[in-house]
Amino acid sequence: MGCAGSREKGTESKKIRKPKAWKHSEPITREQLAQMREEFWDTAPHYGGRKEIWDALRAATEADSTLAQAIVDSAGVIVQNPDLTICYDERGAKYELPKYVLSEPTNMVNDS
Question: Which positions fall inside the DC-UbP/UBTD2 N-terminal domain (predicted)?
Answer without folding.
Answer: 13-111
